Predict the structure.
Amino acid sequence: MRNELTFEEILRQTRAMMPDVLDDLKSLIRYPSVAFPGHPAEPVNSMAEATVTVLKRYGLQDVRLLDIPGGYPAVYGEIPPPPGAPTIMIYAHYDVQPATRGDGWDTDPWIPVEKGGRIYGRGAADDKSEL
């Protein structure tokens, strides 16, 4: 018999983790990790390292950077499934589209801003939030 969590326990654990998860998201938003020609590589590489740190903190195993010739490193990590459970793969990326105030941002896109219960910043709703 597997030790399964109840819905209430999952909800309790998730709510307890959310302040730290949101702080991590805000931290990741601060990396201008634009992987386009003409943009510096350092913020993208720093974002990759920060992603490794976050995944390790949340208990993923075998977390590491994978070299991609001619590109930025992939970040890899595992959460082993319970015995007999299927393996799934989740894909996300840590680079983002360029962003400037001229693109319609009301605030600096690299500084997370909370408004109306939401977090705004480049990658907050797609790329970086998936991590």
